[in-house]
Design brief:
By secondary structure, this protein is α+β, with helices and mostly antiparallel strands. The chain has two domains: about 150 residues, no CATH class; about 70 residues. Strand 3 and strand 4 form a beta hairpin. The longest helix has 19 residues.
């Protein structure tokens, strides 16, 4: 399998916001692991900089000479694209959800630019930080947002798996864990039986939550996570 890393430049001559949206949707649909959205730079010595007056380009006076607007793309349009760039970086390029969130988005809509733009509005409404953020609020937010779009719980639930898998130590949870002592004992006993792991360590270092038609046990030790799926009958566990 080859990982695609693509670049998309906003602000090319004669490309307005409507056309850029179409281009963004087409490129995002390719499923690149990383889609780097950048803005045209009017670099010294380039033909485009010499031809800037033809398209009424305005750009920063100091390096990197990023464009501010032109005849086809207003400053407001640029700011709209920057909002999408911010959400794209957090919710796609960081690979927090591997490719799973991409698959949810693609099953929900093919208007990806508008999806990320609305995501930005919701993110800002929730007063979440754009830098220095923690993963738990990010996962909590995207789960709530996807539910608000009437996306089925069964499609959203696997985000639990990616959250628990990504953590290296027991993380703060945005979902409920299994607290029933009898059920927890049964699940830990089954995992211990199947893996020969130390039961005390399973108690101390694991998180158990409901997952699909069973349960998910995430074990944290040696600064890494190991996940096990246990069916509802608790007849066996599967290492994920």
């Amino acid at each position: 399998m080859i990982d695609l890393h693509l670049d998309l430049i906003a602000g090319l001559p004669k490309e307005n916001l409507t056309r850029f949206k179409q281009t963004f949707d087409e490129v995002f649909n390719l499923g690149a692991k990383e889609l780097q959205l950048g803005f045209l730079k009017m670099l010294r010595g380039t033909l485009l900089r010499d031809q800037a007056p033809l398209y009424n380009y305005h750009f920063e006076e100091k390096a990197p000479y990023e464009i501010l607007d032109n005849d086809h793309l207003s400053q407001k349009d640029i700011q709209t694209i920057k909002k999408v760039e911010t959400m794209l970086e957090i919710f796609h390029n960081k690979n927090y959800f591997e490719s799973y969130l991409f698959s949810i988005i693609r099953s929900h809509t093919n208007q990806y630019f508008d999806f990320f733009l609305k995501l930005y509005d919701a993110y800002k409404e929730n007063d979440l930080p754009f830098i220095g953020y923690q993963l738990e609020p990010i996962y909590r937010f995207i789960t709530t947002h996807l539910k608000s779009l009437n996306i089925e719980d069964q499609k959203i639930e696997p985000l639990k798996y990616f959250y628990l898998k990504r953590a290296k130590t027991k993380p703060k949870l945005y979902f409920d864990k299994i607290s029933d002592k009898t059920l927890r004992q049964s699940i830990i006993t089954q995992v211990q039986k199947d893996t020969q792991l130390n039961q005390n360590k399973l108690y101390k270092n694991s998180i158990i939550t409901s997952y699909k038609d069973g349960y998910l046990l995430a074990l944290y030790q040696h600064h890494q996570s190991t996940l096990y799926f246990i069916n509802q009958k608790i007849s066996h566990s599967i290492k994920l």
